Amino acid sequence: MVLLHISTSSPSAALVVAGGCFRRGILFKNISASFSTSSHKPLRYAVLGAGFAGLSVTWHLLQHSPKENHVCIDIYDDVGIGGGASGVSGGLLHPYSPKVKPLWRSMECWKESLKLLSIAEAAVESNKLNAGSQESGHGSDDFVVRRRGIIRPAVSLKNLDLMKENAQNCLASCRVEFIDKEAAERLVPDLCVPFNLAFYMPEAVNVHPQRYLELHSLLLSLSTALYSACQNLVKDVSVLGLHRKELNLHKKAVTNLLELSGEYDSVIICLGARAAFLPELSERLPLRTCRGVIAQLQLPDDNRESYAEHGPSILSDAWIAIHGPHNVRLGSTWEWKSRNYSQDVAVEEASKALEELLPKASAIYPGIKNWKYITAKAGLRAMPPLTSHGSLPLLACIDEYLIGKQTCKFWLFTGLGSRGLLYHGWLGKLMAQAVVSCSEDVFPPELVAWKSRMK
């Protein structure tokens, strides 16, 4: 039998799925009972944060944890799955810098991210079948991953030769093509290509972060694409007759790391910018925070125009993420040193963001002026320090900074910045392997070099 739990801050409100049947129960009593028959000590992991990093770590812990052990993973996030910066990200996924240079370890990152996206898509389709839905595939506005490519017109002569040189070193699995104005306008009519050159990435994708992470009503009324994939893996393991895996979502905040001490074998902190607000880590991490506002625009009903059905998303000083012929996301602003991690955007903040973003976007795609503002969301990015390899996320065991040099217990995975989608797959896998092996040795040295800066 497999137990899946979804809880709010109240244990008595837990929804327990046992053998495919729904029933109400006390969450913590069921967890205790489920392990009582095991001859092996159960492994208990706490994952703090339910964004890109947290769910990737969860998925890989389920895959890499010892098969002879019962495993329980508790995810803690007071705003739920995708309630932070991950849930409002632009979703433009490619392995290149603004100068079209392959990013650090781009091959591994690109491969693992695409793998997780495919798993999430499969989970959505599986849940539709389980729910008795007759629908298959996705409509133009109903997608998890939109595979139409991304285009970046050259807008300045500065660094143009360097960008061409960088593009020649592109990944075979994510090509960068040089196209002229005529070819670019066939992809996106009326696109402005001032220097008769655009960099086109046909294999790059646009991810819908809410559908990838946020709550769905397809399974248990509390599934998400990647979270559902984790749940499906839990069920598959049980069907194969292997030891029980448990996955629990707690919609509550953890405000003090030491309150979890003794409860878990490992605690993995995947809170993004909010990691810096924990009392044990406050003012100690080499992170900068930056709030970004993203606007949703739609074409008015009386407008006969539409964005090309197969048109790519656009990168420039402001990016345009295409969600369908009549629906786009426009971003993003950069408010440094902000501590506001709420997704909510006040009217004044939204107006200021549009004043900044629309001129940049219309300079490259004039048709955006005809689109109507619908709403805006914001996220607080955790920006890591710049290194010779670029801005790399922070990964490490941090026991020595919390409770002295003891057996690995507390782990940190933060600083994804604006590249969470690219880094979350591979680095989530490395983090899970490190947790299971209780060793930092699986991390490339570039990812733990930041510890010398920790205060």
Radius of gyration: 22 Å
Major β-sheet annotation: 9 strands, mixed
Number of strands: 23
Order of strands across the widest beta sheet? 3-2-1-12-5-4-13-23-22
On the 0 to 100 scale, the average pLDDT is 83
Share in helix: 25-40%
Q: What structural category arises from helix and sheet content? A: alpha/beta
Strand content: 15-25%
Tally the helices: what do you get? 11
Task: List key phrases describing it.
11 helices, FAD/NAD-bd_sf, 23% strand, five-stranded antiparallel beta sheet, DAO domain-containing protein, FAD-dep_OxRdtase, 23 strands, nine-stranded mixed beta sheet, 455 residues, disordered N terminus, alpha/beta
In words, what does this structure look like?
The chain has 455 residues and is an alpha/beta fold. 27% of the residues lie in helices and 23% in strands. It has eleven helices and 23 strands. It has helices spanning 27-34, 52-64, 106-130, 160-167, 181-187, 209-213, 225-239, 347-364, 399-402, 420-437, 445-448; strands at residues 3-7, 15-18, 21-24, 43-48, 71-76, 92-93, 145-146, 150-153, 177-179, 198-201, 205-207, 245-250, 266-269, 288-298, 313-314, 319-324, 327-331, 335-336, 372-383, 386-387, 390-391, 394-397, 410-414. The strands form five sheets. A nine-stranded mixed β-sheet has the order 3-2-1-12-5-4-13-23-22, with helices on both faces. Residues 1-38 and 215-224 have low confidence and may be disordered.
